[in-house]
Design brief:
- This protein folds into two domains: 211 residues, PmbA/TldD fold, CATH 3.30.2290; 225 residues, no CATH class.
- α4 packs parallel to α5.
- Helix content is 22%, strand content 40%.
- The chain is an alpha+beta fold.
- It has ten helices and 21 strands.
- The strands form four sheets. It has a six-stranded antiparallel sheet.
Length: 445
Amino acid sequence: MKIDREFAGLILRSALDRGADMAEVYITKSRSLRAEAKDGEVHALQHSDGFGYSLKLISSGRLGFSFSNDPSEIKDLINNAFNSVRFTHDDRFLDVPAPEGEYPVLDTFDPEIEKITADRAIQYALEIEKAAYDHDPRVRKTRKSSAVFSSYDVFVLNSKGLAFGYGATSASATITAVAEDKGDSQMGWGYEGGRFLRDIDFNRAGREGAERAITMLGAERASTGKADLVIDNSVAVDFLSVAATMLSAESTQKKKSLLDGKTGQSIISTLVNIIDNPLIAGTPASKPMDGEGLSCRKNTLVSQGILKGFMHNTYTANKAGSLSTANASRRGASSLPGVGPQCITIEPATESASVDSIVGSVKRGMIVMDAMGVHTINPVSGDFSIGVSGVSIEGGRIGGPVKEAVISGNILDLLGSIEAVGNDLRFFGSLGSPSLLVSGVDLSA
């Protein structure tokens, strides 16, 4: 599935010969195989191959862009890119990056994933579902049991001499299990994901979905008042996703971030760091380059609660008078580079603790296993009011399941009230977090 680099060179030369001052070609190829099981049978099987390429050019200080999925449309692509220049305005911050030394050496490709056949993918999906059913007889059905295997290649070439590409693979296992008992029905979600097949435990994903569903059987409404929350790592990454949006220079420059102007200030608990580091081997989002072809690096965004800086691509860095942090992100060949995390994590600034010891320290509160509406948190104000469910904690002991609880406040206050960080760091795609103990949260039924 290698990309034809001569094809990229032809497009670049043609754009420069036509009069572009600067140009960039972005090409991607992908392959995906998805199998879904339900009630012990194949529910769906999808196979897709993707190809896309784009041309970004700068002519007389104006931006031009076009993309295509058809390799025979080079002339149309170039014409459309130049035609689009007429509808953009002069912008002195437009640029393409120059190459920056050596790229990190990362193992991101697993040939075993490329070898996965449709029959084998189906077996994995059935294995996930069977593990959920075998875990407990109260698991009566599943909404979806999926095994997904993907591979892709990316290549970037620009007029400043940058030319680099890489290949990567990923595999994931997911399930939504439904447990039923005494007229009550509850759902639970299980997940496994990584770059390598050897890192995926399909049985464990099924058991996790089953256990989460069973745990919530017989849930009652939560009591109102101040509570300490142990936020499960699967929920903590949702809050991290909101924080990541606020840590984007694109957001601050558009005045869409509560963190605008707060560099050097203490913004959250001194017990945590927020790091963007796609160089961690084996994580689901490890990679050697960003969406503009710059070599990835470790970026410390928040250190001991103090905001150190924002994520930048080439454009936002030029606008801020700084340098790119290699955080250009793309949804594919059809999009221009935006700004986003490569592999962002919450980490302990000093030491971590076991989740059991954290739970044991809580006098009254709950373990938050699910949160609904975290994505609705306003990144400008930071205010939120969202529904949560999980299990209660009384006197350091886990109690019964609770549902229909609501927590409200401000995301910076929430992250500022972190009193302990778990040792259970877990990655969900490009987001990673341990469980977090947050004190004094307003909880209502």
